[in-house]
Amino acid sequence: MIKDSIKEYIEKAKKLSASTKEEIENARIEFLGKKGVMNELFAQFKTVPNEERKEIGILLNELKTTVQEKIDSLKEAIAEKQESMKPKEDLTKPSNIVSLGSIHPLTTVRNEIIDIFSRIGYTVAEGPEIEDDWHVFSALNFPPEHPARDMQDTFFVENGRQDGNDVLLRTHTSSVQARTMEKKQPPIRIIAPGRVFRNEAISARAHCIFHQVEGLYIDKGVSFADLKQSLLYFVKEMFGEQTQIRLRPSYFPFTEPSAEMDISCTICQGEGCNICKHTGWLEILGCGMVDPNVLEANGIDSKVYSGFAFGMGVERIAMLKYDVKDLRQYFENDIRFLNQFSSTF
Ligand code: PHE
Questions:
Q1: What is the pLDDT of residues 268-316, one digit of tens each?
Q2: How far apart are CA 194 and CA 172, in angstroms?
Q3: Do residues 180 and 216 lie in contact, with contact meaning Cβ atoms separated by under 8 Å?
Q4: Taking the chain, what is the end-to-end CA distance rounded to the nearest angstrom?
Protein backbone atom coordinates (compact mmCIF):
# COMPACT_ATOMS: atom_id res chain seq x y z
CA MET A 1 0.00 0.00 0.00
CA ILE A 2 1.37 3.41 -1.03
CA LYS A 3 -0.14 5.00 2.07
CA ASP A 4 1.87 2.83 4.44
CA SER A 5 5.12 3.28 2.61
CA ILE A 6 4.71 7.10 2.66
CA LYS A 7 4.16 6.96 6.41
CA GLU A 8 7.27 4.80 6.81
CA TYR A 9 9.29 7.27 4.78
CA ILE A 10 8.03 10.16 6.92
CA GLU A 11 9.25 8.35 10.03
CA LYS A 12 12.55 7.58 8.32
CA ALA A 13 13.00 11.21 7.23
CA LYS A 14 12.41 12.39 10.80
CA LYS A 15 15.19 10.16 12.04
CA LEU A 16 17.73 11.12 9.38
CA SER A 17 21.13 11.95 10.80
CA ALA A 18 24.37 13.10 9.20
CA SER A 19 27.71 14.35 10.44
CA THR A 20 29.23 15.41 7.11
CA LYS A 21 28.13 17.40 4.09
CA GLU A 22 28.41 14.26 1.93
CA GLU A 23 26.01 12.34 4.16
CA ILE A 24 23.50 15.16 3.89
CA GLU A 25 23.88 15.21 0.11
CA ASN A 26 23.35 11.43 -0.05
CA ALA A 27 20.17 11.75 2.00
CA ARG A 28 18.98 14.53 -0.29
CA ILE A 29 19.60 12.40 -3.37
CA GLU A 30 17.88 9.42 -1.78
CA PHE A 31 14.71 11.39 -1.17
CA LEU A 32 14.66 14.29 -3.60
CA GLY A 33 16.99 13.15 -6.40
CA LYS A 34 15.78 12.30 -9.91
CA LYS A 35 15.46 8.64 -9.12
CA GLY A 36 14.72 9.26 -5.48
CA VAL A 37 11.86 8.28 -3.21
CA MET A 38 9.74 11.37 -3.94
CA ASN A 39 9.70 10.92 -7.68
CA GLU A 40 9.05 7.20 -7.29
CA LEU A 41 6.04 7.92 -5.08
CA PHE A 42 4.72 10.58 -7.43
CA ALA A 43 4.85 8.02 -10.23
CA GLN A 44 2.83 5.59 -8.14
CA PHE A 45 0.43 8.41 -7.18
CA LYS A 46 -0.88 8.44 -10.77
CA THR A 47 -2.41 5.01 -10.25
CA VAL A 48 -4.18 5.94 -6.99
CA PRO A 49 -7.98 5.80 -7.32
CA ASN A 50 -9.80 9.14 -7.22
CA GLU A 51 -11.40 8.72 -3.79
CA GLU A 52 -7.99 8.20 -2.10
CA ARG A 53 -6.13 10.93 -3.99
CA LYS A 54 -6.78 13.72 -1.53
CA GLU A 55 -5.55 11.80 1.51
CA ILE A 56 -2.46 10.44 -0.27
CA GLY A 57 -1.68 13.88 -1.74
CA ILE A 58 -1.62 15.44 1.72
CA LEU A 59 0.68 12.66 2.98
CA LEU A 60 3.03 13.14 0.03
CA ASN A 61 3.29 16.85 0.76
CA GLU A 62 3.97 16.13 4.40
CA LEU A 63 6.80 13.80 3.41
CA LYS A 64 8.31 16.39 1.10
CA THR A 65 8.34 19.19 3.70
CA THR A 66 9.60 16.84 6.41
CA VAL A 67 12.55 15.84 4.22
CA GLN A 68 13.31 19.43 3.24
CA GLU A 69 13.16 20.73 6.78
CA LYS A 70 15.30 17.88 8.08
CA ILE A 71 17.97 18.52 5.46
CA ASP A 72 17.98 22.25 6.20
CA SER A 73 18.38 21.70 9.93
CA LEU A 74 21.19 19.16 9.40
CA LYS A 75 23.01 21.70 7.18
CA GLU A 76 22.62 24.38 9.79
CA ALA A 77 23.95 22.14 12.55
CA ILE A 78 27.06 21.36 10.53
CA ALA A 79 27.69 25.03 9.72
CA GLU A 80 27.45 25.89 13.42
CA LYS A 81 29.83 23.11 14.33
CA GLN A 82 32.36 24.33 11.76
CA GLU A 83 32.09 27.89 13.07
CA SER A 84 32.80 26.81 16.63
CA MET A 85 35.82 24.83 15.49
CA LYS A 86 37.46 27.80 13.79
CA PRO A 87 40.75 28.77 15.47
CA LYS A 88 40.17 31.33 18.20
CA GLU A 89 41.58 34.90 17.99
CA ASP A 90 45.27 35.03 18.81
CA LEU A 91 45.13 36.95 22.05
CA THR A 92 48.86 37.50 22.10
CA LYS A 93 48.70 39.60 18.92
CA PRO A 94 49.39 43.34 19.37
CA SER A 95 46.14 45.30 19.17
CA ASN A 96 45.17 47.56 16.29
CA ILE A 97 46.47 51.09 16.63
CA VAL A 98 43.64 53.47 17.46
CA SER A 99 44.35 56.92 16.12
CA LEU A 100 43.81 59.47 18.87
CA GLY A 101 42.85 63.07 18.38
CA SER A 102 45.15 65.84 19.55
CA ILE A 103 44.65 68.42 22.25
CA HIS A 104 43.30 71.68 20.87
CA PRO A 105 46.00 74.41 20.84
CA LEU A 106 43.80 76.67 22.96
CA THR A 107 43.54 73.95 25.62
CA THR A 108 47.30 73.42 25.54
CA VAL A 109 47.98 77.13 26.00
CA ARG A 110 45.33 77.52 28.71
CA ASN A 111 46.80 74.57 30.62
CA GLU A 112 50.27 76.03 30.28
CA ILE A 113 49.09 79.39 31.68
CA ILE A 114 47.41 77.63 34.62
CA ASP A 115 50.55 75.60 35.20
CA ILE A 116 52.83 78.65 35.22
CA PHE A 117 50.68 80.58 37.70
CA SER A 118 50.01 77.59 39.92
CA ARG A 119 53.77 77.38 40.52
CA ILE A 120 53.58 80.75 42.30
CA GLY A 121 50.54 79.91 44.39
CA TYR A 122 47.54 80.71 42.20
CA THR A 123 44.52 78.40 42.23
CA VAL A 124 41.85 78.12 39.53
CA ALA A 125 38.48 79.83 40.06
CA GLU A 126 35.42 79.64 37.84
CA GLY A 127 32.22 81.52 37.22
CA PRO A 128 29.16 81.21 34.96
CA GLU A 129 29.22 82.17 31.28
CA ILE A 130 25.64 83.45 31.52
CA GLU A 131 26.08 86.27 33.99
CA ASP A 132 24.27 89.29 35.32
CA ASP A 133 25.00 92.97 34.98
CA TRP A 134 26.18 93.19 38.59
CA HIS A 135 29.11 90.76 38.28
CA VAL A 136 30.19 91.80 34.78
CA PHE A 137 29.78 95.57 35.11
CA SER A 138 28.39 97.19 38.28
CA ALA A 139 30.57 95.36 40.82
CA LEU A 140 33.56 96.30 38.66
CA ASN A 141 32.94 100.04 38.81
CA PHE A 142 31.46 100.44 35.30
CA PRO A 143 29.35 103.62 35.29
CA PRO A 144 25.70 103.12 34.19
CA GLU A 145 26.28 104.81 30.83
CA HIS A 146 29.44 102.85 29.94
CA PRO A 147 29.45 101.80 26.24
CA ALA A 148 30.17 98.13 27.10
CA ARG A 149 26.62 98.00 28.44
CA ASP A 150 25.38 98.74 24.96
CA MET A 151 23.66 96.10 22.82
CA GLN A 152 26.35 96.74 20.22
CA ASP A 153 29.01 95.21 22.43
CA THR A 154 27.21 92.76 24.67
CA PHE A 155 24.82 89.84 24.11
CA PHE A 156 21.85 90.24 26.42
CA VAL A 157 19.49 87.39 27.30
CA GLU A 158 16.02 88.41 26.15
CA ASN A 159 13.52 88.87 28.99
CA GLY A 160 16.27 87.88 31.42
CA ARG A 161 16.12 91.09 33.47
CA GLN A 162 15.44 90.57 37.17
CA ASP A 163 15.12 93.45 39.65
CA GLY A 164 16.87 95.77 37.22
CA ASN A 165 19.78 93.32 36.87
CA ASP A 166 20.21 92.39 33.18
CA VAL A 167 21.16 88.83 32.27
CA LEU A 168 23.92 88.64 29.67
CA LEU A 169 26.80 86.57 28.31
CA ARG A 170 29.93 87.66 30.14
CA THR A 171 32.13 89.91 28.04
CA HIS A 172 35.22 89.23 30.14
CA THR A 173 36.39 86.86 32.86
CA SER A 174 36.71 89.84 35.23
CA SER A 175 33.25 88.79 36.47
CA VAL A 176 35.03 85.97 38.32
CA GLN A 177 36.92 88.66 40.29
CA ALA A 178 33.60 89.85 41.69
CA ARG A 179 32.35 86.30 42.28
CA THR A 180 35.52 85.45 44.20
CA MET A 181 35.59 88.59 46.34
CA GLU A 182 31.96 88.23 47.40
CA LYS A 183 32.64 84.71 48.70
CA LYS A 184 36.05 85.12 50.31
CA GLN A 185 38.14 87.64 52.23
CA PRO A 186 41.85 88.13 51.31
CA PRO A 187 44.36 86.69 50.87
CA ILE A 188 43.00 85.92 47.40
CA ARG A 189 45.24 84.56 44.66
CA ILE A 190 43.28 83.10 41.73
CA ILE A 191 43.35 82.69 38.00
CA ALA A 192 40.09 82.25 36.12
CA PRO A 193 40.25 80.74 32.64
CA GLY A 194 37.08 80.78 30.59
CA ARG A 195 35.02 81.59 27.55
CA VAL A 196 33.77 85.10 26.90
CA PHE A 197 31.35 86.61 24.39
CA ARG A 198 31.25 89.89 22.52
CA ASN A 199 28.92 91.17 19.87
CA GLU A 200 31.62 91.59 17.22
CA ALA A 201 31.76 90.95 13.49
CA ILE A 202 33.82 87.80 12.89
CA SER A 203 37.14 88.38 11.11
CA ALA A 204 40.72 87.11 11.14
CA ARG A 205 41.40 89.25 14.23
CA ALA A 206 38.08 89.21 16.09
CA HIS A 207 35.47 86.63 17.05
CA CYS A 208 32.23 86.73 19.01
CA ILE A 209 33.52 83.92 21.23
CA PHE A 210 37.01 83.76 22.65
CA HIS A 211 38.90 82.76 25.78
CA GLN A 212 40.54 84.72 28.53
CA VAL A 213 42.53 84.00 31.66
CA GLU A 214 41.92 86.43 34.49
CA GLY A 215 44.28 86.87 37.43
CA LEU A 216 43.54 88.42 40.82
CA TYR A 217 45.82 88.86 43.82
CA ILE A 218 44.63 90.67 46.94
CA ASP A 219 46.43 90.86 50.26
CA LYS A 220 47.93 93.40 52.64
CA GLY A 221 50.60 95.55 50.99
CA VAL A 222 50.34 94.29 47.41
CA SER A 223 52.03 96.82 45.10
CA PHE A 224 52.43 97.62 41.44
CA ALA A 225 55.97 96.20 41.65
CA ASP A 226 54.47 92.81 42.60
CA LEU A 227 52.21 92.98 39.55
CA LYS A 228 55.11 93.78 37.26
CA GLN A 229 57.34 91.05 38.64
CA SER A 230 54.60 88.40 38.51
CA LEU A 231 53.88 89.22 34.86
CA LEU A 232 57.58 89.24 33.97
CA TYR A 233 57.91 85.78 35.53
CA PHE A 234 54.89 84.59 33.49
CA VAL A 235 56.21 85.97 30.21
CA LYS A 236 59.66 84.41 30.64
CA GLU A 237 58.09 81.02 31.42
CA MET A 238 55.68 81.28 28.49
CA PHE A 239 57.82 82.81 25.76
CA GLY A 240 61.40 82.23 26.92
CA GLU A 241 63.98 83.79 29.22
CA GLN A 242 65.05 86.44 26.70
CA THR A 243 61.55 87.97 26.45
CA GLN A 244 61.15 91.53 27.74
CA ILE A 245 58.04 93.39 28.89
CA ARG A 246 56.83 96.98 28.61
CA LEU A 247 53.88 98.54 30.43
CA ARG A 248 51.89 101.35 28.83
CA PRO A 249 49.38 103.47 30.79
CA SER A 250 45.79 102.53 29.95
CA TYR A 251 42.30 102.66 31.37
CA PHE A 252 39.89 100.05 32.77
CA PRO A 253 37.01 100.99 35.10
CA PHE A 254 38.04 98.34 37.64
CA THR A 255 41.77 99.09 37.97
CA GLU A 256 43.66 102.24 38.94
CA PRO A 257 46.31 102.74 37.74
CA SER A 258 45.78 100.57 34.66
CA ALA A 259 48.22 99.38 32.04
CA GLU A 260 48.52 97.36 28.90
CA MET A 261 51.48 95.06 28.69
CA ASP A 262 53.57 94.38 25.59
CA ILE A 263 56.21 91.72 25.16
CA SER A 264 59.25 92.02 22.91
CA CYS A 265 58.31 90.50 19.54
CA THR A 266 58.70 86.73 19.66
CA ILE A 267 59.38 86.58 15.91
CA CYS A 268 62.07 89.28 15.43
CA GLN A 269 63.19 89.62 19.09
CA GLY A 270 62.46 93.36 18.95
CA GLU A 271 64.22 94.11 15.64
CA GLY A 272 60.96 94.99 13.88
CA CYS A 273 58.94 92.76 11.52
CA ASN A 274 55.46 92.38 9.97
CA ILE A 275 54.00 90.64 13.01
CA CYS A 276 54.89 93.49 15.40
CA LYS A 277 54.22 96.09 12.69
CA HIS A 278 57.88 97.14 12.96
CA THR A 279 57.49 98.33 16.55
CA GLY A 280 59.38 95.42 18.11
CA TRP A 281 56.51 94.97 20.64
CA LEU A 282 53.34 92.86 20.85
CA GLU A 283 50.40 93.65 23.14
CA ILE A 284 49.30 90.66 25.20
CA LEU A 285 47.26 91.74 28.22
CA GLY A 286 45.52 94.37 30.32
CA CYS A 287 46.25 94.82 34.01
CA GLY A 288 46.30 97.22 36.94
CA MET A 289 45.84 97.74 40.68
CA VAL A 290 42.31 96.79 41.79
CA ASP A 291 40.34 100.05 42.13
CA PRO A 292 39.39 100.67 45.80
CA ASN A 293 35.78 101.16 44.62
CA VAL A 294 35.79 97.54 43.42
CA LEU A 295 37.14 96.25 46.73
CA GLU A 296 34.48 98.18 48.65
CA ALA A 297 31.64 97.15 46.31
CA ASN A 298 32.58 93.54 46.96
CA GLY A 299 32.91 93.75 50.73
CA ILE A 300 36.67 94.10 51.11
CA ASP A 301 38.17 96.89 53.20
CA SER A 302 40.28 99.00 50.84
CA LYS A 303 42.10 100.65 53.76
CA VAL A 304 43.51 97.27 54.79
CA TYR A 305 43.92 95.47 51.50
CA SER A 306 45.22 96.19 48.03
CA GLY A 307 45.61 94.00 45.00
CA PHE A 308 46.27 93.67 41.32
CA ALA A 309 44.41 92.07 38.44
CA PHE A 310 45.23 91.13 34.89
CA GLY A 311 43.41 89.59 31.95
CA MET A 312 44.80 88.05 28.80
CA GLY A 313 43.36 86.51 25.62
CA VAL A 314 44.22 82.84 25.14
CA GLU A 315 43.77 83.00 21.34
CA ARG A 316 46.20 85.90 21.17
CA ILE A 317 48.89 84.05 23.10
CA ALA A 318 48.37 80.85 21.08
CA MET A 319 48.63 82.92 17.88
CA LEU A 320 52.01 84.25 18.94
CA LYS A 321 53.24 80.88 20.13
CA TYR A 322 52.18 78.91 17.05
CA ASP A 323 52.18 81.66 14.44
CA VAL A 324 48.45 81.28 13.69
CA LYS A 325 47.37 84.13 11.43
CA ASP A 326 43.58 83.75 11.40
CA LEU A 327 41.59 83.50 14.63
CA ARG A 328 38.72 81.69 12.90
CA GLN A 329 40.88 78.59 12.50
CA TYR A 330 40.58 77.88 16.23
CA PHE A 331 36.85 77.33 15.90
CA GLU A 332 36.46 75.70 12.49
CA ASN A 333 37.94 72.38 13.61
CA ASP A 334 39.50 71.69 10.24
CA ILE A 335 41.42 68.42 10.70
CA ARG A 336 44.35 69.78 8.64
CA PHE A 337 44.74 72.61 11.15
CA LEU A 338 44.28 70.48 14.27
CA ASN A 339 46.63 67.73 13.05
CA GLN A 340 49.54 70.11 13.23
CA PHE A 341 49.24 70.14 17.01
CA SER A 342 49.25 66.37 17.51
CA SER A 343 52.82 66.46 18.77
CA THR A 344 51.61 68.42 21.77
CA PHE A 345 49.56 65.43 22.96
N1 PHE B 1 38.82 92.54 31.45
C2 PHE B 1 39.78 93.26 30.63
C3 PHE B 1 39.43 92.99 29.15
O4 PHE B 1 38.65 92.12 28.87
C5 PHE B 1 41.19 92.84 30.91
C6 PHE B 1 41.67 93.19 32.27
C7 PHE B 1 41.54 92.28 33.31
C8 PHE B 1 42.25 94.43 32.53
C9 PHE B 1 42.00 92.63 34.58
C10 PHE B 1 42.69 94.76 33.78
C11 PHE B 1 42.57 93.87 34.81
O12 PHE B 1 39.94 93.66 28.28
A1: 888 888 878 899 999 999 999 999 999 999 999 999 999 999 999 999 9
A2: 9
A3: yes
A4: 85
When pLDDT is cut at 50, 70 and 90, the band that residue 251 belongs to is very high
282 contacts 306 by C-beta, under 8 angstroms: no
Nearest CA to ligand 1 atom 6: 311
Which residue from 142, 214, 252, 317 has its CB within 8 A of the most atoms of ligand 1, so it is best to mutate?
252
With 60 as the cut, is the pLDDT of residue 345 above it? Answer: no
Distance CA 99, CA 84 (A): 32
On the 0-12 / 13-18 / 19+ scale of CB atoms within 10 A, 135 is buried
Q: Residue 43 has what pLDDT?
A: 86
Ligand 1 pocket, residues with Cβ under 6 angstroms: 172, 174, 214, 252, 255, 286-288, 309-311
Using CA atoms, how far residue 269 sits from 162, 240, 274, in Å, is 51, 11, 12
* pTM of the predicted model over 0.85: no
Residues 173-209 pLDDT 10s: 999 999 999 999 999 999 999 999 999 999 888 899 9
Atom of ligand 1 nearest to the CA of 285: 5
DSSP one-letter string for 41-106: HHHHHTTS-HHHHHHHHHHHHHHHHHHHHHHHHHHHHHHHHHHHHSPPP-TTSPPPPPPP----HH
The Cα–Cα gap between 30 and 46 comes to 21
Ligand 1 center to residue 26 CA distance, Å? 89
